[in-house]
Design goal:
CATH architecture: 3-Layer(aba) Sandwich
Number of strands: 12
Distance between the termini: 20 Å
Structural class: alpha+beta
Order of helices and strands: EEEEHHHHHHHHEEHHHHEEEHHHEEE
Number of domains: 1
Mean pLDDT: 97
Radius of gyration: 19 Å
Length: 334
């Protein structure tokens, strides 16, 4: 099967929902170590791609020339809440590049912290509050440093996007000609890659300076993500929680519609997971279960991640009404 049952919900002891998905776990050589469903299923990488979309900026020396701080390198990889700390960093990134938020081409949406119920909407919000604005600020910074057109920088034939495709291919081992291309929610090109290839990319990212091709850039980006998980996501978000629980070892990133990747720096391994219906709660629960089955969790980490398993279903009154449980076992590759 392409997808296999990963998470089941029961109500009153009766199955109500089943969330299907696939998992790939690989090492730094791209060897498949464990899987569920089809580990080579091509899935859109969505926001898990951001660290790789930042490579042309970092590899070229443009990020250094712009004076981007470690916090701002984390923002390049962020799907953030639009909190004040995020907007402040993006504003400074734009100032350093000599551009304004009106030149961002990600669009504008209600800040995620508002949708999460963490506070009232600001009287005014703009493109800087978009969850992808850090990545897009980096796009503009690269174009300014390289003397490239700003107006068309999201077009597939723009030199920036050509450079991103080149680097994504090199990182994942997938030929550019084999990319399945789409447009992400922020209007940037996005690519569907085999889960196993996406996992390889995160194993390499997590390895940092050990990577023979992108070592310095991966070290800068991974260190920034691990040091500032609050900027990569925000208050109450998954990436912040997982990287803090990982205690410096895990480099994690979620993507829209059920994609999640976790790389272990100490193990030289990474997992990539896709929930076929895009359900986030199932995505998080399945990811914790994969980490547990892989033996990556100690007792303290297992306890800290218990809320992300969301094992018990409660109604609005707080009454326990059902359960959420994993229904898969990883297949190990001998």
């Amino acid at each position: 099967m392409t997808f296999t049952p990963l998470i089941e919900l029961t109500r009153g002891g009766t199955t109500e929902c089943v969330h299907f998905g696939a998992v790939a776990v690989v090492n730094l050589q791209g060897q498949l170590l464990a899987s569920a469903g089809n580990p080579h299923w091509p899935t859109f990488s969505r926001s898990t791609l951001k660290a790789f979309q930042a490579l042309p900026l970092v590899q070229s020396g443009s990020a250094k020339a712009l004076g981007y701080s470690q916090r701002q390198l984390a923002m390049l990889c962020a799907s953030h809440n639009g909190e004040a700390m995020h907007v402040a960093e993006v504003s400074d990134m734009l100032d350093k590049a000599g551009v304004t938020y009106k030149q961002l081409q990600c669009g504008c949406h209600v800040p995620m912290f508002v949708e999460m119920g963490l506070g009232p909407a600001p009287q005014q919000f703009d493109e800087r509050h978009h969850n992808c604005s850090g990545k897009h600020a980096g796009f503009l910074g690269y174009c300014m440093q390289q003397g490239l057109s700003l107006d068309t920088h999201l077009a597939m034939d723009h030199p920036l996007q050509q450079a991103i495709r080149r680097d994504v291919a090199r990182v994942t081992g997938v030929a550019e000609a084999d990319f399945k291309v789409g447009v992400d929610g922020c209007s940037a090109p996005n690519y569907a890659l085999p889960l196993s290839a996406l996992a390889l990319g995160y194993a390499r990212l997590a390895s940092g300076a050990q990577d023979p091709e992108f070592g310095e850039s991966f070290s800068l980006l991974a260190d920034a993500m691990v040091a500032h998980p609050d900027l990569v996501s925000g208050t109450g978000r998954n990436d912040e929680a997982f990287m803090r629980v990982g205690a410096g070892d895990w480099v994690t990133k979620t993507g829209a519609d059920g994609v999640q990747v976790v790389g272990s720096r100490s193990r030289g391994q990474a997992l990539a997971l896709k929930i076929s219906d895009g359900n986030k709660t199932a995505q998080f629960a399945a990811t914790v279960e994969v980490l547990d089955q892989l033996g990556w969790l100690d007792d303290a980490q297992r306890t800290a991640l218990a809320p992300w398993r969301a094992a018990t279903l409660h109604n609005v009154k707080g009454t326990e009404v059902g359960a959420r449980r994993p229904v898969f076992q990883l297949e190990r590759v001998a």
